[in-house]
What does this fold into?
Amino acid sequence: MPNTTKIVFLGASSASFGLSMFRDLFASPVLAGSTLTLVGRNPETLGRMTELAKLLNARSGAGLVIEHTTDRRAALDGAGFVINATAIDRNRLWKQDFEVPKKHGIRHTLGENGGPGGLFFTLRTLPLVFDFIRDIEELCPSALFLNYSNPESRIILALGRYTKVRHIGLCHGIFMGRDAVAYIMQMPRDDIEVWGAGLNHFQCLTEIRHRDTGEDLYPRFRAAEQSFDPDAWRFTRRLYRAFGYWLTCSDDHLGEYLPYGWEAGEKGYDFDQDERWRGEFLTQLNGVLAGTLPIPQWWTEPSGERGAAVIAAMLHDQKRFIESGIVLNRGVIPNLPAELAVEVPVTVDAAGVHPVSLGPLPDPIAKLMLMQASVQQLAVEAAVHASKELALQALLIDPVVNSAVAAEKILDELWEINRPYIRKCV
It folds into this structure.
């Protein structure tokens, strides 16, 4: 494999994730000479993010060649790596995914990766992802597809079942879990190493250890958790006290998968805060690009995401350990179904992505996660085949759905809202 490559970033117009990816790609010179091609649908936003990329690239001395285009196929031609961070009309449709089930009496949390919202995220997202995959199969069949878009588990499951394109899903949930246990123990997070396996946004921290000494920190954590602020991580801690293991990565994400998850809070995603943040970021970005504001220091520091590390490891055959990646199971977690996307440690080198098995999950934890396995499998089939019949079945086996009447009403209403995006993938 050559030491330079072409990296295509789909969804580069994203304000939050675009900046995170730039921070990592420009953090070191190991990709010097490679081309970063930014792809977005909004020329104005894409142009602004391209200016930012060029500014940070020059500031860091990373030495990448920056390009941008709205023509996806032209961008993909000859690519070695394809990063996906796209979403279809993200906030408007996500809000519907939450509000419509709530109107029909379904008590849930975020409405993104589980429950009815997770189903409709899947139904509208998979056709777009498969458009990307068909182009990759034609234009750059050896490329690695790095997915950051939700619902991660369902996208990776679909890719594992229906394409030979190399792929991995990436998420920072494992680090959120580490930060939570570090905070509860009042220890520096860099002193702590966690090992986790399970589903995306539903991992079990099987081990918590001191990074330098290898000391098992679960006893210290158990003692610290008992007297910690009772209002922090209330839902996660209830599960921890019942099952004996810390689950990632937050109350609301965990709550998406469980019938009593609404106890984590039923407010949904804070769309108003999201819009405020985006407005503030745009104002700051315009000031930085105009030269009237300095570049914030944190814009030039790594974000903690692992996409750039995966790319560098494959490109330079570094045999890099990555704490967490989403892959097709195929026995990596023996007591979860083989045909399921799981989140486990991986190693990466020039030969590709290699999942690391931590052995079987504790039996009660595996049984907790099995509640989601069939839901995710059936949701993927509903999306791939654009089947309303299968979509209803996916709703009726989802533990979050407690009414068949409500399921039918939700299906009819959200199907019409998402009809422009639902189509067969294979």
Notes: The chain has a mean pLDDT of 96. The two ends are 31 Å apart (CA to CA). The domain at 91-114+170-268+305-425 is CATH 3.90.1820.10 (LDH C-terminal domain-like).
